[in-house]
Amino acid sequence: ALERVRARLAAPGAAGRVERDAVGAPTGVLVDPSDDLREALTVPPTASDHTRWLRAGLAACADAGLVEVHFMAATVPELEALLAIARADGRLPLRVVVYLYAGDDAFAWLESHPPGPVTPHPDVRVLGVKLFVDGALGSRGAALKAPYSDAPGERGVEVPLERLRGWAGRAAARGLQLAIHAIGDRGNAIALDLVAGAGGPPGLRHRIEHAQVVDPADWDRFVALGVVASMQPTHATSDMRWAESRLGAARLVGAYAWRTVLARPVPLAFGSDAPIESWRPALGIHAAVTRQDTAGWPPGGWRPEERLTATEAVRAYTEGAAFAAHEDARRGRIALGRPLDLTVFDADPRAEPARWSTARAAAIVRDGEVRRRPR
Q1: Whole-angstrom Cα distance, residue 142 to residue 185?
Q2: Are 259 and 231 contacting, i.e. CB atoms less than 8 angstroms apart?
Q3: What is the H or E stretch that residue 179 is in?
Q4: Which residues pair with 55 in a beta bridge?
Q5: Structural contact between residues 225 and 274, judged by C-beta atoms closer than 8 angstroms
Q6: Number of C-alpha atoms within 13 angstroms, CB side, residue 168?
Q7: pLDDT per residue over 141-185, tens digit each?
Q8: Count of H helices and E strands in the chain?
Q9: Among 39, 45, 272, 348, which residue is least crowded by beta carbons within 10 Å?
Q10: How far apart are CA 244 and CA 335, in angstroms?
Q11: Which of 367, 341, 326 is nearest to 97 (CA)?
Q12: Strand, helix or coil for residue 230
């Protein structure tokens, strides 16, 4: 097993970066390793592991007030475990929109079904595939157009573009949506190139997950391509203490830029990126409205010109998320003739936005049925 790991470490593209000590020896820290290297270093989860984790996650999300989640980068074993739970229970605690992690097994599953979105259970809909073009900003794995301000010479991980182009075209040709992880400005430019070259039928509403640091010149490409900016407000409040040292002041203009997105206009959908951040939507609304952490720092908010109103933030979590999942004709807002999804919180934070940080779901209505009442 050790020799197999060593061989994969030595292979081209085995990891975005292998951290080394002062004498050049590997420290054991890998930044954004490849899938095969990750598999060689970990014990594969069992079906019972998947079932246990999924049941816990579904319950936690429902308890937080969610009636639907977008399950990003799901593996085929995870999808099969989710379907097994749904069939055994008859109904899940909430609806799940699935984006399969792109790979041979995912396409084998998809190609065993008719083209287009697949609905193997009323509560589970497989809508697209997830691609990754870079890593995270914190690890300096996000792909930047110019070097990191605090690490001259480093511009983030390199990505296997030919493979990504093949997967993007293969998915779009089947009428499936692309969800592309892109954090750095170079990563977002690459993601936009993938969308532009993917082909497929019009109106697929491809989405870029995070769109965290974007070259301001590239926002017009989001508009022209009809790409959804799928963003996570708590990333800003998690990163704000060190983001400027990574990026420099000039690049912050296109970073965590929700107000800029709405002004273009680019379709905006909010989410959590759980388990990287909390799955509680109230915390995301708090971050979007205040640009502060839950302790109220910094006073006035970080880069407050990008703050949203509570109405705008809630709309991104509801109408925006429904639009991103092609559900806006039936879901995302309250209207006559539509199924009623509704979350009642135990506080009214409109007068005091900081109250969002402690707001809890007191009652949940899904498809017109009260699913949970106050305890």
Answers
A1: 8
A2: no
A3: strand 177-182
A4: none
A5: no
A6: 26
A7: 999 999 999 999 999 987 889 999 999 999 999 999 999 999 999
A8: 14, 13
A9: 348
A10: 43
A11: 326
A12: strand
